[in-house]
Amino acid sequence: MSRPKNQNYKGHGLSKGKEREQRASIRFKTTLMNTLMDVLRHRPGWVEVKDEGEWDFYWCDVSWLRENFDHTYMDEHVRISHFRNHYELTRKNYMVKNLKRFRKQLEREAGKLEAAKCDFFPKTFEMPCEYHLFVEEFRKNPGITWIMKPVARSQGKGIFLFRRLKDIMDWRKDARSSDDQKDEIPVENYVAQRYIENPYLIGGRKFDLRVYVLVMSYIPLRAWLYRDGFARFSNTRFTLSSIDDQYVHLTNVAVQKTSPDYHPKKGCKWMLQRFRQYLASKHGPEAVETLFSDMDNIFVKSLQSVQKVIISDKHCFELYGYDILIDQTLKPWLLEVNASPSLTASSQEDYELKTCLLEDTLHVVDMEARLTGREKRVGGFDLMWNDGPVSREEGPPDLSGMGNFVANTHLGCVNDRNNQLRQLFRSLQNQKKVSS
Ligand code: ADP
């Protein structure tokens, strides 16, 4: 291992011959105390490292990354759970900036039709810097609803809907006054985004989808799509007549949990399988196939939009949580991509989903070096992109344009291979309940 001379650098993953021989186990570290800890602690051969101890695998939070990544030396085999500049995709303003740029590039290089495949995010303006552009757009479409979202917060915090410019004047004033005191209070950036006024409703309620995508490398792009995920419902019937009611408009679990109608036992989630079956029974299998392949397009295009800007470090992987909203025409919209999707379980079903998801993530990350590199499926993950589209069939993909290509994605399809794993974590949780 070549350690930089700078003494402030921290080294991880010992490589000196003797020490490597002694490392019979994988030393992991994490700051998260949720389903992740259960999975890591039960993985055979993995041992927990605390404080300043050496580690081979670190599921870190993004604040640790920001402060430490650049001063940390990592050995070849070491893995860490974020890319250095993950925010290019996971901050609302950067995501939109990158998508707009990628769209322009596609239009130049491949034409209008190809560029139109990027039209899956609602019209968005960064505030305050694009305020004047926003006003222009606002005046073109009087009466429609907009949503203001702080770029770097989550769980629905700081979000509000509006229809009149007057409604955001207070926010503008705040931004301007803090501009005068730049050094003291940094201005909080927002995005103003066109509100999807016609969400697909089930039982009169709005929902959005949480889908998991695991990226192992950006150059070349190698991404896996998880079969399971869920729809998060609001507890209150949808209406456009009360735009101030966050229980109607924001489907975040963190928001809905505080609603007076929330039932902790029932929760507010449907697994993706149930959702897919519901849609198939209402609209037929073809409409569902189209919707799900439109979602595949969102995952791939959004990753491609940041492929050249993300620092593709071989030590890094990232498990993204995509938030997708579907409208009444069955068009999926990308709302945001989360770098730290919640790994806290809100119910038994949710616990099983998240523990299996994490277990399968660790299989793909493959610290144990068990994979051959030719796998198209690992647990609930299907290889979606491997420097190009991945076909469900064996052999090289047929890209002849004859329409024979079938993508290797199975979002919302039955994830039968995980039944055993589910059983294991179910009994683990029952043991925990008994002992507490
Ligand atoms: P956060 O990071 O705070 O969760 P999101 O962008 O995911 O922010 O928005 C929170 C919720 O607000 C979403 O889950 C969705 O229910 C609703 N929402 C956000 N943007 C839109 C939009 N453009 N149209 C309709 N609903 C939206």
UniProtKB/TrEMBL annotation:
<dbReference type="GO" id="GO:0036064">
    <property type="term" value="C:ciliary basal body"/>
</dbReference>
<feature type="region of interest" description="Disordered">
    <location>
        <begin position="1"/>
        <end position="21"/>
    </location>
</feature>
<protein>
    <recommendedName>
        <fullName>Tubulin--tyrosine ligase-like protein 9</fullName>
    </recommendedName>
</protein>
<keyword id="KW-0436">Ligase</keyword>
<dbReference type="GO" id="GO:0005524">
    <property type="term" value="F:ATP binding"/>
</dbReference>
<dbReference type="GO" id="GO:0015631">
    <property type="term" value="F:tubulin binding"/>
</dbReference>
<keyword id="KW-0067">ATP-binding</keyword>
<dbReference type="Pfam" id="PF03133">
    <property type="entry name" value="TTL"/>
</dbReference>
<dbReference type="GO" id="GO:0070740">
    <property type="term" value="F:tubulin-glutamic acid ligase activity"/>
</dbReference>
<keyword id="KW-0547">Nucleotide-binding</keyword>
<dbReference type="InterPro" id="IPR004344">
    <property type="entry name" value="TTL/TTLL_fam"/>
</dbReference>
<comment type="similarity">
    <text>Belongs to the tubulin--tyrosine ligase family.</text>
</comment>
<dbReference type="GO" id="GO:0000226">
    <property type="term" value="P:microtubule cytoskeleton organization"/>
</dbReference>
